[in-house]
Amino acid sequence: MSLLINQKILNILFYQICFIPFLLVSGPFFPDLIVVLISITFVIFTIKENNLNLFKNYYVYFFLIFYILIIISATFSVDKYLSFKSVFFYFRFIIFFIAFKYIFEKFENSETIFFKFLLIISFILIIDSFIQYYFDYNILGMKKIFSEGHGDRVTGLFGKDEILGSYLSKILPILLAFYFFINKKKTNENFILLLLILFFLSIFISGERAAFIQMLMFTIMFFILVDFKNKKKYFAIFLTAGLVLMTILVLTDKNKKVRMIDSVYNNFKQGNIFSQYHQSHYMTGIKMFLDKPITGHGPKSFRVMCGNKKYMYNKYSCSTHPHNTYIQMLSEIGILGFLLILILFTYICFLLLKFFIHKLFKKQQIFDNSYVIILIGLFVYLWPISPNGNFFNNWLSILFFLQIATLYLFDDKKQQ
To answer: Looking at the whole model, is its pTM more than 0.70?
Structure first.
């Protein structure tokens, strides 16, 4: 295969990756199709180039073990068709993050170009959300949706799907990681502050409590761990601006106050884990795990088994998934799947703690800022207490593996 053809293929693959953040707005089908096309093309490419060594690393081994576990679990599933349909081709994500790193390293200015794509889609979504919040309709004429008990919800270009906050909270670590990577010598602190405030406001008005809490966790850890000029001053400005703007929104919008403040306080007061619904899902998931602790009931089986009287906790027990990654692993994949995700989270904690100790006591920054930022993003994504979407959902899997791909890309460049 000639070098010219090779480069043309890599160019096509690179721009396909760049469009994934845009395509995610349309739903799971088109971005997942791109992931599949990239994976197939990359496998053919590596075979022809006789470069299979790309797949020999501990990232691949880890996720390959996870893939084997979910396939074993699917084999013993209560609904084999549903389970296999959702996870049989899960290996495409493993190929994807390998392809991501290889393509970025071969494409000139790849990090800068990808950052610009991320920045454009982020600003489009944020501006659109503000327009929809204040004028009821967004730039495409989509009206705010009504959510029973919570009033109007801002969803922006996502239409009927209440995932604007989830998208922004998961894309922010990637965006900032690439920003710090391409601006190692000098960062624009005003730009960083503006970015954080805009994301903060957009996620807040989306009414997605879990995404908002994740955004706050990420921002606090970002200011603690990431090194840049005058960060204490900018953290104080962020806190002040965030509190003032949030207070104004809460005082002028009763629905936001009820959903984002009152409901959280009342659930905490009643001893619920996030909400009564979430608590019911968790207890149902634990009952499922105790009944089948080794292999679980199979991927995506929660929706099938939650209505079984044997596992029902109360009338709120049922949902498509238990809304927590670790409970989902226990109930659907079993103890081994749970332990593997816990190992990944523990490893991320270890790296962040190692970085923090060196920074605090030895005054050494052992990792690059970009690497630390994406570690924080994954820490927040896998935080055990946080409510989550379905781990095997294609849309969420793409966002998760975009973070894994970014971590893998910066892994060799993590040293200062």
So the answer is: yes
Asked if 128 and 157 touch (Cβ cutoff 8 Å), the reply is yes
| Cα–Cα dist 348/326, whole Å | 16
**Nearest CA-CA partner of 353 in 213, 221, 170, 216:** 221
pLDDT (tens digit per residue) in 189-221 = 999 999 999 999 999 999 898 999 999 999 999
Q: Report yes or no: 376 and 225 within 8 Å, Cβ to Cβ.
A: yes
Residue among 236, 100, 262, 256 nearest 165 (CA): 256
Angle between helices 3-23 and 110-135 in degrees, nearest 10 = 20
CB atoms within 10 A of CB 143: 12
Cα angle 35, 169, 241 (rounded to 5 degrees) comes to 155
Q: Round to whole Å and give the CA distance between 7 and 256.
A: 50
**Rounded distance between C-alpha atoms, residue 257 and residue 64, angstroms:** 45
* Residue 1, pLDDT score: 47
| Residue 28: burial class (beta carbons within 10 Å; 0-12, 13-18, 19+) | middle
Q: Which residues contact residue 364 at a Cβ distance below 8 angstroms, ignoring those fewer than 6 apart?
A: 358
Output 128 or 186, whichever has higher pLDDT.
128
Residues in contact with 333: Cβ distance below 8 Å, sequence separation at least 6, in sequence order:
69, 70, 73, 295, 296, 299
Question: Do 359 and 224 form a contact (C-beta atoms < 8 A)?
Answer: no
3-state secondary structure (DSSP) of residue 307: coil
- The two tokens of residue 239 are 């806190």
DSSP state of 55: G
Residue 158 has pLDDT above 90, yes or no: yes
